[in-house]
Amino acid sequence: MRVRATTLIALSCVSCATFGAPRHERTNVLFIIADDLTASALACYGNEQCKTPNLDRLARRGVRFTRAYCQYPVCGPSRAALMSGLYPQANGVQSNGGAGKLAEALGERPTLGQHFIENGYYTARVSKIYHMRVPGDITAGVDGPDHVASWTERFNCKGPEWMTAGDFEALSNERLKRDPDKHYGLGFGTAFYVVRASPDAARQADAQAADKAIELLRAHRDEPFFLALGLVRPHVPLVAPESYYRSYPAQQMKLAPSREGDQDDIPEAGISHYTSERRGLEDPETKRKVLSAYYAAVTFMDSQVGRVLDELDALGLARNTVVVFSSDHGYHLGEHDFWQKLSLHEESARIPLIIAAPGVAPAECASLVEQIDLYPTLAELAGLAVPPHCQGKSLTALLDHPSRSVRDAAYTLCMGAHLLRTEHWAYMEYADGEIELYDMRADPLQFTNLARIPEHAGTVRELGRRLQAKLARLLPES
Ligand SMILES: [Ca+2]
Predict the structure, then answer these.
(1) What b-and-e string marks burial along 71-95, b requiring 16 or more CB atoms within 10 Å of the CB?
(2) In this predicted structure, what is the pLDDT of residue 15?
């Protein structure tokens, strides 16, 4: 049972003179989002090789959601959905290029950050919350297509990214232009470009972001805050200090399970644009090097999270601060010989989601949940009204009763194609009418597309009907 925040804080106020606890009576939010992080890379989500001690620690004191799905498996639209509380069809952002149009599309409807500002909170963005082009906007140190009204203050972290000093290697086949005077069009936004950074290499953006978050926690501890910390790893380029690679000798990395002819039953529209074949990653040794570098980047990101969580504890703020950790979308690490994002398959559509809230007991929750559920959840946890435009569902009942469920399906959009994920099925429908259907109980790795098997025709029809009903409901109201 969740203890009411007001009760907790009344206690902390009595003791604040002695223990230096916060002097306000509101619930704070520390929202941390990683970039291109698949849930399956985290130790607390079952990965046996990648080390994430700090996120594991957060999971041990929070509720870890095992079936959370992004609204769109690419940065701009997923982040716009999360922050607006609206599906991509309703907020108008269905591509990275459209990310700058969010403010105009929303009109008077407040974003998550704006809603907290309007309720008297100090809100801050540190690094990437809305879309930023990585690495271009990071090497340039610029805002990207931000939503200005969401923030009291904004801080960008300018980092060296692919220019970081150290041993470097290009593992995929993009044509790269190493031009230190330019930020865009150089090819580093998709390339598996790896840098094992020298100990004295210039400071990484995520380390700067953690520094800034710590500084802001100290400066704003005495007022209600909504602090949004965006970490850019493990988005490529895969840059981490050399010491982080030592845990991941490439030759020991376990490749994703595979099956001969796995892609044969995937319709053309469902084949990722970023396959092993297309990107020159067919050699198992090269794949293992990608895993080694991705895991090093994940562990480096995890270390930055740990520094911020430590500070939250040291300042006595954990007792009245909700901590959320998530990612903008998932990521393929070689499943079906797919890499990266923009796929409706499980590893790309599913996201990690951990919510640690005062008085909430640690738990695992298997309810289907969506990114847009975070807006009403955080509003409720802070005692704020949920704006009527929000299309998501509050997850606060799940925090108290993690065995319950709030939805019978999660929905993800990707380039005109749709995923309807139920507890039993993953149903994907493409613009050309092609379909994929996976039995997630019997085939969680999605090896066998059942869409054309006659005995599943009824399931296909039923899920198709449910998808159409869902689509009719999520269109904008005006
Ligand atoms: Ca297959």
Answers:
(1) bbbbbbbbbbbbbbbbbbbbbbbbe
(2) 37
In the reported structure, the alpha carbon of residue 9 is separated from the centroid of ligand 1 by a whole-number distance in angstroms of 53
CA 447 – ligand 1 centroid, Å: 4
Q: Is the pLDDT of residue 474 over 90?
A: no
Query: How many Å lie between the centroid of ligand 1 and the Cα of residue 330?
Result: 19
CB-side exposure of 398: number of CA atoms within 13 Å? 30
Q: How far is the CA of 326 from the centre of ligand 1 (A)?
A: 28
Return mean pLDDT, the chain. 94
77-82: average pLDDT = 98
For residue 286, the CA-to-ligand 1 centroid distance in Å is 23
Give the CA dihedral 431, 436, 441, 442, nearest 10 degrees: -170
Domain boundaries, the chain: 23-474
| pLDDT value of residue 202 | 76
Q: Across residues 325-344, what is the average pLDDT?
A: 98
Distance 262 CA to ligand 1 centre (A): 4
Q: What is the pLDDT of residue 16?
A: 39
Q: What separation in Å is there between the alpha carbon of 252 and the centre of ligand 1?
A: 26
- Residue 154: pLDDT above 50? yes
Cα angle for residues 32, 164, 125 (degrees, 5° grid):
25
Q: φ and ψ at 368, to 5 degrees?
A: -65, 130
Amino acid 152: pLDDT: 98
pLDDT above 90: percentage of residues in the chain? 92
Residues, Cβ < 5 Å to ion ligand 1 = 262, 265, 447
CA–centroid distance, 451 to ligand 1, in Å, is: 11
Q: 246 — phi, psi (to 5°)? A: -65, -30
Mean pLDDT to the nearest integer, 449-467: 98
Query: Tell me, which fold does domain 23-474 have in CATH?
Result: Alkaline Phosphatase, subunit A (3.40.720)
CA of 435 to the centre of ligand 1 (A): 13
Name the residue among 420, 393, 397, 424 with its Cα closest to residue 409: 420
Q: Stretch 34-39: mean pLDDT, rounded? A: 98
Burial class of residue 422 (count of CB atoms within 10 Å of its CB; 0-12, 13-18, 19+): middle
Q: 406 alpha carbon to ligand 1 midpoint, in Å?
A: 30
Output the CA 268–ligand 1 centroid distance in Å.
Answer: 12
Cα 263 to ligand 1 centre (Å): 5
- C-alpha 261 to ligand 1 mean position (Å): 7
**Structural contact between residues 232 and 138, judged by C-beta atoms closer than 8 angstroms:** yes
pLDDT for the residue 330: 98
Question: Residue 327 in contact with residue 349, Cβ under 8 Å?
Answer: no
CA of 46 relative to ligand 1 center, distance in Å: 23
Per-residue pLDDT band at 7 (split at 50, 70, 90): very low
Separation of 449 CA from ligand 1 center, angstroms?
Answer: 6
* pLDDT for 105 beyond 60: yes
